Amino acid sequence: MTPRAGEPQLAPSGTIRPEGKGRPGWHRRASSRSRHVGWILFFLLPSGIPLLLFTFLPMVSSAWVSLHEWNLISPMKWVGLDNYAHLLTDPGTRRVFANTIFYIVGYFPLVYIGGLGLAIVLNRKLAGRSFFRAAYFLPVVTSWVVVALVWQWLLNPSNGLINQILGFFNLYEPGWWTDPAWAMPSVILASAWKDLGFVMVILLAGLQTIPHELYEAARIDGASGWKVFRHVTLPLLSPATFFVVVISLINGFQVFDQVYVMTGGGPAGASQVVVGEIYELTFRYGRAGEASALSWLLFLVILAVTVIQIRGQRRWVHYA
Amino acid sequence: MPDTTVTTPPAGPGVARTGDAVEASRHRPRLGRVLLYAGVVAGAFMMLFPFLWTVVTSITTRGNLSGGPTLVPEEPTLDAYRTLFDALPMWRIVANSFGIAIASTFFQLLTGSMAAYGFARLRFRGKNVIFGLYLATLMVPLQVLVVPLFIQMTRFNLNDTYFALLAPSIASAFGIFLLKQAMESVPRELDEAATIDGASHLRIYATIILPLVRPALATLTVFAFMASWNSFIWPLVVIRSPELMTLPLGLSTLQGQFTTDWNVVMAGSVVSILPIAIVYLFAQRHVIAGMAHTGLK
C-alpha cells in the first residue's frame, strides 16, 4: 500500500480513491497516518530546521537583545525600551536615516529614467541588440565590492579617470569620496551604474507584455510619439514600474556594501547609512543592544514604506 | 545559448535581428535612427569602459599610476598580480567563493524544492500557518539578523568556519515560495495518476514534479549563486582568517593593505570579475530571463 493512501483528502475526488482505503481498520489507519506524518517531516524538515535555527531564532533573540544594554562580552543588562527611546531622540539616528533617504532620492530617478530609456530603445529592432542587453547587464552580476573599488578608483580625486577628463576640459574637479559634500553623490553614481541593467531588464520584460494591437489602435486614432508613450506605454508598464519602486526602496534602505567600501561612511560620517551605523555600533562601539534596536527600527520603516506603496498602488498601477 | 554575446559589431542598421520588437523601423527617419544607435553605443561604452579601465590599471606599474594610467600602458607588467597572490591566498579565496556558492545553491535547490513539494502537494493541518511563518522570514532584512546570528555562532564556537559562512543560506524562503508557485501550476492529474500506480511521494517529487519545474529551478539557481557569490556583510562579520575568505571580503581587505597601490586592488578586481563574467557569458540568457521572470510575479 502506498503512503499516499493514508491521506484522507484524496477521497473528495472520489474516483481515484485507492483500493483498500474503503474501510480501513483502525490499525491500518494509524500506521498510514504516521507514515503520512513521516512524509511531511521528510519534506519540510530539511528547510524547516535551518530556517528555525538561522532565521527565526536570531529574529527572536535580536528582539530580546534590543531590550538590553550589551557589549557582546559582559552579561546583558535589561533596559526595557531605553535603546529605542535613545535612538529616537539621538540626532545621529536622524542623520543616518537622512543620509539613507538622500541616497534613495538621488539613486532612484537615475536608474529609473535611465533604465526606462534603455528598455524602450532595446525593445526595438536593433542590430546587436542582445550584445547591448548583455553589456548593460554585466555590472549587475559583478559584486558590490568590486564595483565600489573600481568606482573609487575612477573617482579618485587626484589621478582618477573622471577628474582627469574634467581637468582636461578645465571643469571643476570635485573631491568625490574624500569630500563630505560629494561622498554620497559618489556612492549614488556607482550604484546607479551597477543597477541600471537590472531595472532595464525588468522594464523590458514589462514592455514585452504590452499587446501590439494597442499601439496599432493608438496609431489609427492618430496618436503619435509622446502621446502613445504617455497614454499606452506608461500605464501598461505600471506593474513593472511598481515592482522596481518597491524593490529599489527596500534595497535602498538596506544599502551598505558600496558605502562601506567606498567611503566607510565618511568623511566624518557624511555618508553613513543606517546599516553602516548598525555595523559600527555593534563591532566598533560594542553597543549590540542599541544596534539591534536600530535594526528593528529600520525593519519597521521598510515595512511601513512597503505597506504604504502596496496600499497606494490602486491609484496608479493598472493591471491588464 | 551562445547567442550573440561575444561579437556583434555595431554594423549598419540594415540587418535587423528577428525578435519581438514592437515597432517596425520603416517609418523612422534615418537621422533619428543613427542618433539612437550612437546613444546606445555610447551607453554600452560607459557600461564596459570601467571594466576595461580595471584591466588596464592592473597591468600598469605603480610608478606610472601616479600621473594617471594611459589607455595603453607603456610597459605592461603582471607585477600587481604577483603582489596580490603574495599578499592573499587568492587561489584559495576563489575556490572558497565557488565552493560556498555551489554548496549554498545546491542546498537551496534541494531544501527549497522539497519544502515546495510539501506545501504544494501534501495536506496537513496548519499548513497555511507554517507557510505564513516561512514567508515572514522573507520580510526580515539580513541586517536585523546579522548581529544575533554572529552572537549565536560565537556561542557555539562556530565563528570563522565554513559552516558559519554557509549556514544562513542552506534554506531560503524566497526559493521555497518561487518553487511552490511553479509546482502549483503543474496539473494534479499527473501525480494522482502516479499515486494510483503505486508511486511514493519521493518518486513523484523526483520523477514527475522536479522535471516539470525546471525553469523555476534555473531561476533559483541564478539567484542563489549570485547572492552567495556577491554576499559581503555576513562573511565580513563572521570570517577572520584569510584562508576562509570569499572574494568580496578578500578584496575589501586589499583596500586597507594597499591604500595607494591601485594596480594591486584592480588586479584583485579582475581576478574576482573574471570567473563570474565567464559564467555569465554562458548563462546570459538564463540570468536575464530569470531576473525578468521573477520580476513580474
UniProtKB/TrEMBL annotation, chain A:
PANTHER family, alphabetized: ABC TRANSPORTER PERMEASE PROTEIN (PTHR30193), INNER MEMBRANE ABC TRANSPORTER PERMEASE PROTEIN YCJO (PTHR30193:SF37)
Region annotation Disordered: where it falls in the sequence: 1-29
Transmembrane segments: 37-57, 101-122, 134-154, 182-207, 228-250, 293-310
Domain of life: Bacteria
Pfam families: BPD_transp_1
Record key words, sorted: Cell membrane, Membrane, Transmembrane, Transmembrane helix, Transport
Example GO BP: transmembrane transport
A GO term from the CC aspect: plasma membrane
Subcellular location, principal: membrane
Annotated protein name in UniProt: Sugar ABC transporter permease
Topological relation to the membrane, as annotated: Multi-pass membrane protein
Localization per record: Cell membrane
UniProtKB/TrEMBL annotation, chain B:
Location(s), subcellular: Cell membrane
Native organism: Phytoactinopolyspora halophila
Protein name (Swiss-Prot/TrEMBL): Carbohydrate ABC transporter permease
Membrane topology designation: Multi-pass membrane protein
Keywords: Cell membrane, Membrane, Transmembrane, Transmembrane helix, Transport
Chain positions covered by the region annotation Disordered: 1-22
Acyltransferase keyword on record: no
Lineage start: Bacteria, Bacillati, Actinomycetota, Actinomycetes, Jiangellales
Superkingdom classification of source: Bacteria
ABC transmembrane type-1 domain boundaries: 94-283
Entry annotated with the keyword Membrane: yes
Stated family: Belongs to the binding-protein-dependent transport system permease family.
